[in-house]
Specification:
single chain; 219 residues; alpha/beta; Rossmann fold; Arc Repressor Mutant, subunit A; 2 domains; six-stranded parallel beta sheet; 11 helices; 6 strands; elongated; phosphoprotein; Sig_transdc_resp-reg_C-effctor; Response regulator transcription factor; WalR-like
Length: 219
């Protein structure tokens, strides 16, 4: 079994790619296999005989963007783990990348030590998220699905809460969700706050992760 972790970088900024390559190659047992300027370039360079373990994927790229490329990898190379890389901090961007198959999310201005932690956790735990999804949230989500036990938390959700939860996994704003459910925005806020308490999460992304793990939405 090889000990070296192979990393690919997809980003349309040449200086950032080079900088990341230098930093990653300094990590013990990490090596940048190749870099790519966009999704299409990344796909062209994939060699089935030596695939990267992790792709550090920029979200906003010309041509095939991070969402499209991540979805392609999930379908054709499911063993490759995607760590989304972006300047965006919006929950919508995170949710969209998760739904397209990303296993983690890190900001471009993160400290190199956080990037190393992200690589370690994606390989050992299967996922990594920064402070936008706290460790407590991830632990509670991971404990929600147990093959030996039913899901008492899930059983306590009302039909309307489940409907809201599914809509929260879309790119709709809370205002748009309220219109689709034919309720006021205040009522939608009530559904959200109730789910936060019941599921022990603190962000919309946490709600999405719960829905994905319990197969309430397809990704």
């Amino acid at each position: 079994m090889r000990d070296m972790r192979l990393i690919a970088i997809a980003d349309d900024h040449a200086m950032l790619r080079k900088g990341l390559e230098v930093v990653i190659n300094m990590f013990p047992n990490h090596q940048v296999l190749f870099t790519a300027s966009d999704g299409e370039d990344l796909i062209r360079q994939l060699n089935p005989e030596q695939l990267p373990d992790i792709v550090l994927m920029d979200i906003s790229m010309p041509g095939k963007d991070g969402y499209q490329t991540t979805e392609y990898l999930k379908e054709h190379f499911p063993g490759i783990r995607v760590l989304a890389l972006s300047t965006l901090e919006s929950e919508t961007a995170i949710i969209k990348m998760i739904k397209h198959g990303a296993k983690g999310y890190i900001l471009k201005d993160a400290d190199p030590s956080e990037l190393k932690v992200a690589f370690d956790e994606i390989m050992s735990k299967g996922s990594y998220y920064n402070e936008l999804i706290t460790q407590k949230v991830m632990q509670s989500i991971n404990q929600l699905v147990d093959d030996k036990n039913p899901l008492p938390t899930f059983a306590r959700l009302t039909e309307r809460e489940i409907q809201f939860l599914k809509l929260a996994c879309s790119e709709k704003t809370y205002q748009q969700i309220a219109k689709e459910m034919f309720v006021s925005e205040r009522t939608v806020d009530g559904y959200r706050d109730a789910l936060f308490r019941k599921l022990e999460v603190t962000t919309r992304v946490g709600l999405v992760m719960f829905a994905i793990r319990n197969r309430l939405v397809q990704i």
